Amino acid sequence: MVNENPPAARIPVATYRLQFNRQFSFAAAQEIVPYLNDLGVSDIYASSYLTAKEGSMHGYDVVDQNRLNWEIGTGEAYAELIGELDKFGMGHILDFVPNHMCIESRENAWWMDVLENGPCSNYATFFDINWQPVKKELTNKVLLPLLGDQYGKVLENGELRLLFEDGAFSIAYYETRLPLEPTSWLQILRHRLDVVEAAFSADAPLLQELLSIITALQHLPPTTEHDPEKIGERYREKEVVKKRLLMLCGQSVEILNFITENVTIFNGSKGNPASFDLLDQLLCRQVYRLSFWKVATEEINYRRFFDINALSAIRMEDPIVFRETHALVLRLIQEGKVTGLRIDHVDGLYDPLTYLERLQRNCFIQCCLGASGAGPRLADAETAADFMKKCNDDYNGVIAENPSYKPFFIVCEKILLKGEQLPEEWPVLGTTGYDYLNYLNGIFIDQENLKWLDRSYTRFIRQTINFAEAVYEKKKLVMQVSMSGEINTLGHYLNNISEKNRLTRDFTLISLTRAIIEVIACFPVYRTYANSSIIREKDVQYIETAVAKAKRRNPAISTSIFDFLRDVLLLRQGEDASEGDRLEWLDFVMKFQQLTGPVTAKGMEDTAFYVYNRLVSLNEVGGAPDRFGISVDAFHSQNADRFRTFPHALIATATHDSKRGEDVRTESMSFPRCRRNGRNLW
User: Fold this and answer.
1) Is this model's pTM higher than 0.70 or not?
2) What is the pLDDT of residues 519-535, one digit of tens each?
């Protein structure tokens, strides 16, 4: 082995959450480390401090995973914080965001590259973009629903402005800056070209340079290019053009004025709709389509974090994306600066198990590098490839001997509903504590007061609400109002699958989409986790339950359609199915799984919780408002189960995601008890 003693995860005893932002810096955190140590805190639990959108107060709108957020502090300030933690022997858990990135900032260089180069961008596959969506007008384009009104109104109101800066053209929409695809610059540079030609002699070097730049733009490979050599040529030549154009404008006032005047012409004149035709034509040539933000509901063609247009999901299942997004955090782990990770929104990932396994493997390698001291001098000792191979072999050997081995402390943000368990095969130490929080809430509720509280609540709201029914209805509402685009895409995907078999090709697109909606609305958990032909027994039960409920609720829909959807979700194909068909079914299932979680979160937590308020202490993240408390014995039983499966999971009475603090929840719980003692506070 490279390291005879395999890395052992540092297990925190007590954590303290620190919310970093421009108002609470690395230096501010350093000042309170001695105080936290005196409290008995063993590890700080840091919010994400990687570069986020400017002004972010929470850090989840990351724009660059490989730089520290300059608003929080410098590298030196960060090192001093780590040094202070080391002085007291304290650890450091970092909140890491693997699911999405903010796309509303020019600091997100990957997204800006996609907007400039389209499908041939080096980062086009980093983001979960459907370049061949149902809406044909969006083929090889990405919808940008960021306008405050209809596109035409925004355009003719002069809110979209063409800019020329540093040798490149871009579009400004208030503070937002969007690059223009370089070949579309030809429309600007050719406009009134005769005017600038008249200002020079035919063989004037400055004019010849401008014409040469135009020719170079004409020969740029298109945004749909697939040949790596041609794509490399495009990247190289477009940057050369920018430098040449910048230099030319510095050398010639006439050409600079020509471009400046063209920019003014393209920007139109408010009150004269026809004057915006040129800018409209220019925008239509881009690899993105600007639209009213409400259009995202039905036509969005990039996966979002829930229904937030500003947060685009990234394809973490791609090993290259994993490598490029984890470079900094893995280096911090190697250097011993980060001793644990909290993985945000694990349910949003295409394949959580594979991601977590890859993460633990890489943490093992980095810990070995740190322990051996080989990291900084690896090139002198042996090739990086050889060292990595040895580490991989070591990891495989340790896992073969002890399948439950976890080299690094990793917990994941995961909401578990009634009766649900965290998959035991996940290489994590547990959840972030929502489950414990809600079981703890339950023992402070007197179950004998259920009938009294039901009567009081019904009398107060003047109607009877069934919580399960409310969740069903609100999940359908979410799929109709804010996530219909994702549902329509999934419906078309299932329709394509059905068309390949003579027994299912008569199922209509509308009926298949309705079946998807109904099954998701009846889904008993946030999501399932199939990633191969073998499906966990628990997941089979969840799917069977959802389909059975959907059938009962929808007698007008043919049961054969629900049976088909069930068979797809359970990957029940005939023996004669081709490998391509098997992969297509699996891909559908994994995309389906990515959608059920956001729908449940939006439908239950963000909607049903605000309709059904019988006892607000139960309306909490991971809570079940219709489950009126638990017995002390049940609480202890849950603790015993957790100790058996994930003994080092975080336990919490509140988290930064909690809708209400402990004091508010405790006050809510006190009402039924006070009534029982003869004092009706209601």
Assistant:
1) yes
2) 999 999 999 999 998 89
